[in-house]
Amino acid sequence: MNIFLSSDHHHHNPPFEILDGRVVPYAETPQRVAIILAALAEAGFAAPIAAPPATIADLAAIHTADYLEYLANSSARWQATGLSVPVFPSAWPLPGLRLRSDCPQAAAGRYTFDLSAPITAGTFTAACSAAGAALAGAAALLAGDTRAYALCRPPGHHAAAAMAGGYCYLNNAALAADYLARSQTSGDATWALRSPTVAVLDIDYHHGNGTQSIFYERNDVLTVSLHADPAYEYPYYLGYADERGAGAGEGYNLNFPLPAGTDDVGYLSALDQALQAIADYGPRYLVVSAGFDTFAGDPLGGFALTTEAYRTIGRSIAQLGLPTLVVQEGGYALAALGANVVALLQGVFTA
Ligand code: SP5
Ligand code: ZN
């Protein structure tokens, strides 16, 4: 079992975000990775491997060329116009409005869906590093490892093909899942004639709207998400139970919106249903979008999970018996983050 680290993550450290109408310190900090690394070392996990950054060609598997060009160059363009970074949108080309302007402000609205994804000079470098860690984890599974953990920062599950939001710029888990789904497995008669199928299980507190949208019309990647009901929680516009996929992907997206205050018992019972759906699908690989903002003390969350729940979640995931890549997403209760990650990984890796 290897741990892959986005070693360039610290280049991304925005000073603030705008949350529910207030300027607040940015919750998705470099300190999160430092805390997780210290806890993993303390628990006896092997030292992490620094993954090479993803290339534009790697990213183009999921993201559009114009969006990648925007991520790479928007902060320089913003500054060249006399604006100071970070890049934040202040207007959006919503239906009925026209996107004709070449201004960097117009592009910011086109490619960002909220006020939690500012772009600084180092954001793209960090995001490529996170995507590289996820792809290295996927490659480890293809090479025969049964478990891997990608310590990605910034996280990814809110990022769509051409949209940043919710601390996410590149969809690390989606890149890994797509890479696995496109792989050709040699020397295995059962799978030699077709590409393998993949399930993505998203256990972050927030719905993985980016991951859902990327795979919505595909049946080779089953997407399953447990999250706070979007009727009362971010991202509000996606994540409802009646969103089940479209076209060839109909039936291959499953949402489990959960009530405020969901505790270990309620969560684990929904998880059992989610895992049963994955078992019924019978994928070759599993990618877990692992957020820890379901923890009782999380400043952004409203669930009540305990540290022990993450160990149980990990064990239940392991019981699927699938080669599994765990990808780091959210989790902002810093005092418990290390213990929660260790508990999940011990559950996954030692079951
Ligand atoms: C990766 C990830 O976890 N991103 C989360 C981004 C959430 N941003 C907006 C959250 C709005 C929450 N409203 C406050 C709820 C306090 N209980
Ligand atoms: Zn989250």
Short description:
This protein is of the alpha/beta class and 351 residues long. The chain is built from ten helices and ten strands.
Task: Throw out a few tags for this protein.
binds N-[3-({4-[(3-aminopropyl)amino]butyl}amino)propyl]acetamide, 10 helices, binds zinc ion, 10 strands, alpha/beta, 351 residues, globular, two-stranded antiparallel ribbon, 36% helix, eight-stranded parallel beta sheet, single chain
Residue windows where pLDDT falls under 50 for at least 5 positions? none
Structural class: alpha/beta
User: C-alpha Rg, in Å?
Assistant: 19 Å
* Strand order across the largest sheet: 4-1-5-10-9-6-7-8
H-E order: EEEHEHHHHEHEHEEHEHEH
Number of E-state strands: 10
Q: What is the CA-CA span between the terminal residues? A: 13 Å
The helix content is 25-40%
Judging from the principal axes of the Cα atoms, what is the shape?
globular
Q: Describe the main β-sheet briefly.
A: 8 strands, parallel
Number of helices: 10
Proportion of residues in β-strands: 5-15%
Ligand inventory:
N-[3-({4-[(3-aminopropyl)amino]butyl}amino)propyl]acetamide, zinc ion
Look at the structure and give the mean pLDDT. 96
